[in-house]
Design goal:
Rossmann fold; 4-stranded antiparallel β-sheet; 14 helices; binds adenosine-5'-diphosphate; binds iron/sulfur cluster; binds magnesium ion
Length: 353
């Protein structure tokens, strides 16, 4: 697979066939009678210095996958390898050592930053937890404040006095305190206004390039993900349905779901403006996903095969896509799905209004 951000041969993160389900309902005896499949056999690789964007509608399993990577929740099946070490079942000191290498930034810094702490103490807390001396904590905190564009005086204030963008800078500084190699960014700019989004994205890019950081960058907004990512993975109802170089996925979507996400953007690119693909209906429940392809209930191209057989991710050059259009029917074989969408008007594909 192409890895434009890679600078070394060992991936910083390798996730193989990871699944996670949650109890969805219980009977009168408290026994679990239905489970919700939040993540199903998801695999991904991230190289040092690389950003993998993870995109999909709300409820598609992005945050759960991020939490699995961070080992904040245990996998049901699959493997997580961080910097060459299998951490799938690590706990105690082993997991603690792994946690130095990976950190997470959440969407809502308001709830993840203690309002009663000074910003300086919030940023220094991970260093204290890992036994760094007071003097070293102080100097590191000053450097981190400057690195995220905050001033010395900001350190003596409370995060609750800050704007959303400033609070996210504090959260980023805290995440970088232990000099991780990988940062999971879970919708880090989704709660910010557009101009602040751009500033925080630029900061994340600059920090990545300066520190050779790898990001798993989670967002529901494809434009944001495209802006920052080297590669993009598209998730639908717990499964990764397309993954490839960012420009490829953004400009030549192979999966009808990716195409629909692009088409739903407020300012689609000229190429996708010609044919607007409406994403109709709700995402089905992950408790009872449809048989065959999970996207079949909303796909304008669904065939009989799609209702029976779940498509596997198949590689076509640098891109992998899980859709029968590529291995049967019109046999797109890795070509952009817009090739056939242009000629269609049936189902959920309708001309742009
Ligand atoms: N702790 C949990 N218990 C039960 N269901 C959960 C839990 N966490 C997530 N889910 C469910 O898993 C699915 C995926 O959620 P999530 O990973 O948060 O998706 P996303 O981040 O893409 O919006 C959703 O249906 C959500 O309700
Ligand atoms: S496999 Fe079938 S239903 Fe699924 S996205 Fe492809 S064409 Fe649509
Ligand atoms: Mg989420």
């Amino acid at each position: 697979m192409n890895t434009t951000g890679s600078t070394a041969s060992t991936p910083i993160l390798e996730v193989s066939e990871v699944s996670k389900s949650f109890p969805a309902s219980k009977d009168v005896f408290g026994r679990v009678v239905a489970r919700l499949q939040a993540v199903v056999e998801a695999s991904l690789t991230i190289n040092p210095g690389e950003t993998l964007g993870l995109v999909g509608e709300s409820g598609s399993g992005k945050s759960t996958l991020g939490r699995l990577v961070m080992r904040l929740t245990d996998v049901d099946a699959g493997r997580i390898v961080l910097d060459g070490d299998d951490i799938t079942e690590s706990n105690g000191p082993e997991l603690r050592a792994a946690r130095r290498k990976m950190q997470i930034v959440f969407q809502d810094p308001q709830s993840s930053l203690d309002p009663n702490w000074l910003v300086r103490d919030i940023i220094a807390e991970p260093l204290r937890a890992y036994g760094v001396s007071r003097a070293d904590r102080l100097s590191a905190t000053e450097r981190l404040l400057a690195d995220v564009g905050l001033e010395h005086a900001h350190g003596s204030r409370y995060a609750s006095e800050f704007s959303g963008g400033q609070r996210q800078r504090v959260a980023i500084a805290r995440a970088l305190a232990l000099e991780p190699n990988l940062v999971v960014c879970d919708e880090p700019v989704s709660a910010l206004d557009v101009s602040t989004q751009a500033q925080v994205l630029s900061l994340l890019e600059a920090l990545r390039d300066r520190r050779n950081l790898a990001y798993l960058f989670i967002a529901h907004d494809l434009a944001v993900v495209h802006h920052i990512s080297h590669r993009i993975a598209v998730m639908y109802l717990g499964r990764i349905v397309e993954v490839g170089p960012a420009d490829d996925v953004y400009n030549r979507p192979r999966h009808p779901y990716t195409e629909a996400l692009l088409s739903a953007m407020p300012n689609p690119k000229p190429a996708s403006r010609r044919q607007r693909i409406l994403l109709t209906g709700e995402m089905p429940s992950p408790v009872d996903p449809p048989p065959g392809c999970r996207f079949q209930t909303r796909c304008a191209h669904a065939m009989d095969l799609c209702r029976r057989v779940e498509p596997e991710l198949v590689a076509y050059g640098d891109v992998e896509v899980a859709c029968h259009l590529h291995d049967t029917g019109p046999e797109l074989a890795g070509a952009s799905v817009t090739e056939i969408s242009r000629g269609r008007s049936a189902g959920s594909a309708a001309p742009a209004s």
